[in-house]
Amino acid sequence: MNPLRRKITFGFGLCLAAAAAIAAAPVRNGLVLYFPTVDLPVRDASGAKNNATASSLMVSNSPSLVSMQQTHQLTYCAWIKPNSVAAFFPDLISKGGNKPGGAFGGYEITLDTSADHDLVFESGNFDAYTGGGLINNNLGQWIHVAFTIDTVAQTVQFYVNGQAVGTSIETGSFSDVNFDLTNNLYIGSRDPAADPNRCNFDGQMRQVMLFNRALSADEVQTIFTKTALKPKPPITK
Q1: From the DSSP assignment, how many helices (H) and strands (E) are in the chain?
Q2: CATH number 2.60.120.200 is the correct assignment for the domain at 28-226
Q3: Residue 59 CA, distance from chain mean position
Q4: Any alpha helices (H) in 54-191, and if so which ranges?
Q5: How buried is 26 (Cβ within 10 angstroms: 0-12 exposed, 13-18 middle, 19+ buried)?
Q6: Which one, of 137, 141, 109, 135, lies nearest residue 123 by Cα?
Q7: Sign of CA dihedral 138, 114, 219, 21
Q8: Within 13 Å and on the Cβ side, how many CA atoms surround 31?
């Protein structure tokens, strides 16, 4: 095949795949990012078959990734399967955080090693968290995590497996949240410009979604139900 034609065909295939993924999303209104998987195979071109799997992604900043500054709302959803929770705070998603300077603001969701705060959201001075026993007690299992915030209505909520869980504000106020940072977006790894007291997520991710609006509890439940990972059928001889 002509190299130019192959490149055009490959690019067209990627466009079709992206369009199919968006069409398959159970909730589309306000959707600005959707990765059905984050674990991508990387083939060793040497022929020695030392293949790898990329378990994190970097997304260049774009207007849609800061559109939450106009809507004053954000929702994050993902299926995660954590192998461990390190001593530092593993980032599920990071675009800025709580470090004064160039990364003060944006949005960041981390896991926590302490027994009483399993999930944490930070944006500048604003810090919201859940109770314990949600993630750390279920390592090695697929867990659906969702987070919504509306800074005008002053509501913030974490969800685990489609159900709202206790969510508290530790520091700051809703007026401290600033989504308008030019930082790139990192999924499964820390923003290099953010707080150094962070580390990469250790595990697998599926069905990562980001919205520029706060989804309702019913919409979160719909995403949880319709994106649930189906167990593989048993192998029959």
Answers
A1: 3, 16
A2: yes
A3: 12
A4: 68-71
A5: middle
A6: 109
A7: negative
A8: 21
Taking only the tens place, the pLDDT of each residue in 153-170 is 999 999 999 999 999 999
* Length of the chain counted residue by residue: 237
Q: What is the pTM of this model?
A: 0.85
DSSP 166: -
Task: Give the pLDDT confidence of 56-102 residue by residue, as tens digits.
Answer: 899 999 999 999 999 999 999 999 999 988 777 899 999 987 777 66
Query: What are the E-state strand segments in the chain?
Result: 31-37, 40-42, 52-54, 57-59, 73-82, 89-99, 103-111, 119-123, 126-130, 143-150, 155-160, 163-165, 167-171, 185-187, 198-200, 203-211
Q: What's the token pair of residue 97?
A: 């955080």
Considering the chain, what is the average pLDDT of its residues?
A: 85
Give the Cα separation of 115 and 132 in Å (integer). 5
Q: Based on the number of CB atoms within 10 Å of its own CB, is 113 exposed (0-12), middle (13-18) or buried (19 or more)?
A: middle
Identify residue 219 by its one-letter amino acid code: E
pLDDT digits (tens, 9 = 90+) for 180-224: 999 999 999 988 887 888 889 999 999 999 999 999 999 999 999
155-160: strand order across its sheet:
31-37, 203-211, 73-82, 143-150, 155-160, 163-165
User: In whole angstroms, what is the distance from residue 120 CA to residue 105 CA?
Assistant: 14
